[in-house]
Amino acid sequence: MNHIISIHDLDRDQIDHILSRAGAITTEYAGKEPLKGKILGLLFFEPSTRTRMSFESAMLRLGGSCMNLGGVEVSSMAKGETLADTIRVVSGYADAIVLRHPKVGAARLASEFSDIPILNGGDGAGQHPSQTLIDLYTIRQSMSLDNINIGLIGDLMYGRTTHSLAYALTHYNARIHTIAPKGLGLPDSIRDNLEEKGSKVFVHDCIEDVINELDVLYITRLQRERFPDPAKFFDISSNYRITPSLLTDVKEHLAILHPLPRVDEIDPAVDSMPYARYFTQARNGVPVRMAMLTEVMT
Amino acid sequence: MTGEEPKRTLVISTIENGTVIDHINPGEALIVLRILGITGSTRECVSVATNVTSKAHVKKDVVKIENRELKTKEVDRIALVAPDATINIIRDYRVIEKKGVIIPPVLMGVLKCPNPCCITNTNEPVMSRFEMQGKKAVCSYCDAVISSDISAHII
């Protein structure tokens, strides 16, 4: 049985295989319902819009159906049931489970108690492999994944999507440029680990220093709650905002990605520029998750 | 006064049955006792020598525990803080087994994850699991890394 728990568990061949499958999924299964009669259990113990809805959409498009946990407050978790027991029970009702949970490592634990495949839909500050596969797929629509210069900007201390993407790109010899406010830079342990795996990591003070070298710019939201002083948040966040004036001399094929939701970090005027890929990235959630579901359920 | 040199005696005596943990890094015998759960309230007869000079003229600590043979899990824990230690199993005053300690590649239920948000720090029926990567221990569930003061995380 296959689980998809962490991007660390996937080697380059496995990642390429899923991305290729996502690219061909609409033609491969045109007029077919490969998951007809199968049920996907959606166990979301934290709020989610894109992940939950795109997994549901992917399952329905493959001919299958979905079963929702509902709110945590109406589940047995509210009575004190362990996640392990919940998984044991639900694995008798469904053919695969997508799990989102606030505790890091929850999906790994679930895979140890489940008789059916577990797909990690995000575990606290830990892993969110489907998001990383979507990010890679979106980049691959514009360029080869090999040897790219990628800028990671925003909260790189706590941002799980940037960590996972950086790790995945170690398979593709990426040059990683980081731009983050003081105190929210990439943790040293992760930077060391990326370099051990062969990536080159460069730290920049401001986006202007590197923007014109980049093939991909991956921006994440700065979380207001990380800044005790609201005035300081507004001051700092203005330095981490992408505007059309910043993009005057960038590479023609630059792709700007954002896992969304965004707040102020991308000027809406950028949306209509050819570099903006973030809404395409969100739409790509469906084919990539279709590929993941067929990978573990067929 | 006879003028004779005082007779040399052993720092600590031999034991009839039990375990001798030798070649512990100097000053770390007390950590080994903590790992083994030996406190002032336990009943074992224990001898501890710290900073004794070995044959190789280097300092070491030695712990002797009467009537107790260590389990594999206990030896794994000792390996984390005393990687050069040797474990001698004594029966009837004779060393019947002598072995070094090896840090296993995977430590099950030995370390407590330092990440308070890790699933292993909840009421779930799960044992902590760390993989050794060189001198670092990495949590298999949350990827938290313990790279220094590993003994502080021993359960």
Question: Can you give me a brief rundown of this structure?
Answer:
The complex is a heterodimer of chains A (298) and B (155). Chain A has 298 residues and is an alpha/beta fold.
Radius of gyration of chain A: 19 Å
Helix content of chain A: 25-40%
The largest contact between protein chains, plus residue counts on each side, is:
A-B, 18 and 17 residues
Proportion of helical residues of chain B? 10-25%
CATH superfamily of the largest domain in chain A: Aspartate/ornithine carbamoyltransferase
Radius of gyration of chain B: 18 Å
Provide the structure class of chain B: mainly beta
Main beta-sheet annotation of chain B: 5 strands, antiparallel
**How many E strands of chain A?**
9
- Please give the order of strands in the largest beta sheet of chain B: 2-3-1-4-5
| Low-confidence spans of chain A | none
Q: Which term fits the overall shape of chain A?
A: globular
Biggest sheet strand line-up of chain A: 7-6-5-8-9
> What is the rounded distance between the termini of chain A?
10 Å
What is the CATH top level name of the largest domain in chain B?
Alpha Beta
First-last Cα distance of chain B: 54 Å
> What is the H/E string of chain B?
EHEEHEEEEEE
- What do the pLDDT scores of chain B average to? 87
Give an overview of the whole structure.
- Chain A: It is an enzyme of class 2 (transferase).
- Chain A: Belongs to the aspartate/ornithine carbamoyltransferase superfamily. ATCase family.
- Chain A: Its EC number is 2.1.3.2.
- Chain A: Catalyzes the condensation of carbamoyl phosphate and aspartate to form carbamoyl aspartate and inorganic phosphate, the committed step in the de novo pyrimidine nucleotide biosynthesis pathway.
- The complex is a heterodimer of chains A (298) and B (155).
- Chain A is α/β, with parallel strands linked by helices and 298 residues long.
- Chain A has a five-stranded parallel β-sheet. In chain A, strands 2-1-3-4 form a four-stranded parallel β-sheet, sandwiched between helices.
- In chain A, helix 6 links the parallel strand 5 (149-153) and strand 6 (175-179).
- Chain A has helices spanning 12-28, 50-61, 83-90, 106-113, 129-142, 160-169, 188-196, 230-237, 278-283, 285-297, and strands at residues 39-44, 65-68, 96-101, 118-123, 149-153, 175-179, 200-204, 216-219, 255-257.
- The longest helix of chain B has 10 residues, at 72-81.
- In chain B, strand 2 and strand 3 (59-66) form a beta hairpin.
- The mean pLDDT of chain B is 87.
- Chain B has 155 residues and is mainly beta.
- In chain B, the strands form two sheets. Chain B has a five-stranded antiparallel β-sheet, covered by helices on one side. In chain B, strands 6-7-8-9 form a four-stranded antiparallel β-sheet, with no helix packed on it.
- Chain B has two domains: 18-100, Alpha-Beta Plaits; 106-153, Aspartate carbamoyltransferase regulatory subunit, C-terminal domain (SH3 type barrels, Roll), CATH 2.30.30.20.
- The relative contact order of chain B is 0.17.
- Helix content of chain B is 11%, strand content 32%.
- The A-B interface holds A 8, 82-84, 101-106, 108-109, 112, 123-126, 189 and B 115, 117-120, 122-126, 139-143, 145, 147.
